[in-house]
């Protein structure tokens, strides 16, 4: 496939699995060198369990070839004007918008999410490109005079060639959240999506061709983390890594990059986020909102969003009402196969299933859901798990501590504000927190004590793309979004000129 149109007709004409090719130097290229000899990876449709495509496990020599393409493209791309880069990104955003349905259908097929959810994420991917296409036009640098002796100002330049690595939960949205600012700020890149969900990244190559992004500016390669991802991150030609994924992988990436002190690292990692429900938020006038926000935060995208609130803490006086009404609401609104999709892979299905078996063993109370059966390796039924609501789970249970990353929530009572904050912060992670209360003073008082990079009060997942996005503690380092993305993708020198 060398254009998006061909990709589209190719995909629709295939009755069997499709074979994805890397997009390097502006072209789709068949695996060659040692990548041709190594075995391909398989990707399965979560809703049915059938094999839908294969992808190369790109080997280090082919990774290097992609990096060299990005490196060769860097000098001229980094010298383009902001207006030129802005126009290119705008074309990307328009083309993506025009192909919304193609991307949404594939995202839903590949990841397991509902089509409705996939459409929202394609729209957000479109916004990633349109936002950064205009952001760079409005950047300003302030100059300062030092005692009439020297004039000083910050001069920024693109930081170089980046490795952009993303996970499987929101494949297109999270990859474009990296590609858009990377290209906007004048860097070039080799992007690697998750081996579990590579299809929309494959289709993106066609969009970049059509939009006239010069060859080599953005290269997209496929493969697993241990071979392809590690070779990419460790390359001395890579000037920076923007990574979103699990905390253990973040630690491995830090190690791989440790010998290059100047390598920019932006690590957006895992979470085990608390939802803190105060009794005032269960008053009749706001009750519906409280239940709706807590449920959405728990179960959107099958709980496969790093920002999901999976540990719910409820003030004791409202606890039993909350458990009852939350359960009834989820039962009515979150229906497997309709508003709840399939989980992304059989490996992830097994991981969630093990936690639910542990819940049975530990005699937790299941208000909704149950431990699902073991699937056969061919997974022909698809990977479906009912939303699960648990109470009576001990504080030190792995169910309360580990990031399950599925539609499993625990509900625990707390006595007072101090204990609520203490329970919410009792985690190695610090990505997001949801606070449900009507007390204005408490919103600030508690909100400012929560150890989380993002705190939502009476709402969830509301985002403005300029706000800092990222986590505290083991949830990551660095922030992305607006000027924070600029810090990731540029280097700064401070110039001092005689007055
Ligand atoms: P993962 O860490 O297993 O994989 C993420 C990506 O890293 C994949 O592309 C994978 O191939 C690659 N990778 C794996 N090992 C590597 C290595 N040694 N070197 C380089 N690359 C390597 O994560 P996942 O299972 O795909 O995604 C789920 C995780 O992502 C969860 O922990 C979730 O919280 C997190 N996540 C975080 C955010 C955020 O913004 N903080 C957003 C979405 C998902």
Rounded mean pLDDT score: 95
The biggest sheet amounts to: 7 strands, mixed
**Poorly predicted parts:** none
Structural class: alpha/beta
List bound small molecules. Answer: nicotinamide-adenine-dinucleotide
N-to-C span: 58 Å
Percent helix among the residues? 40-55%
Count of beta strands: 23
| SS summary, helix count | 17
Rg for CA atoms: 23 Å
Beta-strand percentage range: 15-25%
Q: Record the strand order, biggest sheet.
A: 15-16-17-14-13-19-20
Tell me, briefly, the overall form.
Answer: globular
How does this model look, in words?
- The protein is α/β, with parallel strands linked by helices.
- Helices cover 41% and strands 21% of the residues.
- The chain is built from 17 helices and 23 strands.
- The protein has helices spanning 4-13, 34-37, 60-79, 82-98, 100-111, 115-135, 171-184, 199-211, 225-234, 247-257, 284-299, 319-333, 346-361, 398-401, 417-424, 440-447, 482-489; strands at 18-19, 22-24, 27-29, 41-44, 51-55, 143-146, 150-158, 161-165, 188-192, 218-220, 240-244, 264-268, 273-277, 309-315, 365-368, 388-391, 408-414, 429-430, 432-436, 454-457, 472-473, 476-477, 490-498.
- The protein has a seven-stranded mixed beta sheet with strand order 15-16-17-14-13-19-20, with helices on both faces.
- α4 (82-98) runs antiparallel to α6 (115-135), α5 crosses α6 (115-135) and α11 (284-299) crosses α12 (319-333).
- The longest helix has 21 residues, at 115-135.
- Bound molecules: nicotinamide-adenine-dinucleotide.
- Nicotinamide-adenine-dinucleotide (NAD) binds at residues 165-169, 174, 192, 194-195, 224-226, 229-230, 233, 244-246, 249, 252-253, 268-271, 306, 403, 405, 431, 471, 476.
């Amino acid at each position: 496939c060398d254009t998006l149109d061909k990709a589209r007709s190719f995909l629709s004409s295939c009755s069997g699995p499709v074979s994805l090719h890397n997009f390097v130097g502006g072209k789709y290229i068949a695996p060659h060198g040692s990548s041709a000899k190594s075995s391909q990876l398989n990707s399965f449709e979560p809703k049915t369990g059938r094999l839908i495509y294969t992808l190369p496990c790109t080997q280090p020599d082919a990774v290097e070839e992609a990096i060299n393409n990005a490196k060769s493209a860097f000098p001229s791309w980094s010298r383009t004007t902001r207006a030129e880069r802005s126009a290119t990104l705008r074309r990307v955003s328009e083309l993506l918008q025009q192909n919304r349905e193609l991307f949404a259908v594939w995202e839903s097929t590949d990841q397991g999410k509902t089509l409705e959810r996939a459409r929202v994420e394609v729209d957000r991917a479109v916004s990633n490109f349109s936002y950064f296409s205009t952001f760079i036009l409005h950047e300003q640098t302030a100059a300062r005079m030092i005692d009439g002796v020297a004039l000083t100002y910050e001069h920024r330049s693109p930081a170089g060639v980046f490795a952009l690595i993303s996970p499987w939960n929101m494949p297109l949205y999270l990859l474009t959240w990296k590609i858009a600012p990377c290209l906007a700020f004048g860097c070039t890149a080799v992007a690697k999506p998750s081996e579990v969900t590579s299809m929309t990244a494959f289709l993106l190559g066609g969009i970049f061709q059509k939009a006239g992004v010069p060859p080599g500016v953005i290269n997209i390669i496929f493969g697993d983390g241990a071979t392809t991802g590690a070779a990419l991150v460790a390359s001395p030609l890579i000037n920076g890594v923007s990574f979103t994924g699990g905390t253990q992988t973040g630690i491995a990436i830090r190690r791989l990059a440790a010998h290059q002190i100047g390598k920019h690292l932006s690590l957006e990692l895992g979470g085990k986020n608390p939802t803190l429900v105060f009794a005032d938020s269960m008053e009749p006038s706001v009750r519906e909102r409280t239940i709706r926000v807590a449920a959405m935060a728990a179960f959107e995208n099958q709980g496969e969003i790093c920002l999901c609130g999976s540990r719910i803490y409820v003030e004791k006086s409202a606890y039993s009402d909350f458990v009852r009404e939350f359960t009834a609401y989820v039962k009515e609104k979150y229906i497997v196969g309709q508003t709840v999709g399939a989980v992304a892979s059989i490996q992830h299905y097994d991981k969630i299933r093990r936690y639910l078996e542990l819940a049975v063993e530990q005699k937790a109370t299941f208000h909704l859901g149950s431990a699902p059966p073991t699937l056969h390796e061919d997974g022909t039924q698809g990977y479906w798990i009912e939303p699960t609501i648990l109470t009576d789970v001990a504080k030190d249970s792995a169910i309360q501590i580990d990031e399950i990353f599925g539609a499993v929530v625990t509900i625990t009572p707390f006595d007072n504000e101090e204990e609520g904050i203490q329970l919410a912060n009792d985690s190695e992670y610090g990505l997001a927190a949801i606070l449900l209360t009507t007390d204005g003073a408490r919103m600030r008082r508690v909100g400012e004590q929560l150890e989380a990079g993002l705190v939502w009060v009476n709402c969830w997942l509301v985002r403005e793309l300029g706000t800092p996005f990222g986590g505290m503690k083991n949830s990551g380092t660095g922030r992305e979004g607006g000027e924070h993305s600029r810090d990731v993708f540029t280097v700064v020198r401070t110039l001092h000129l005689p007055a």
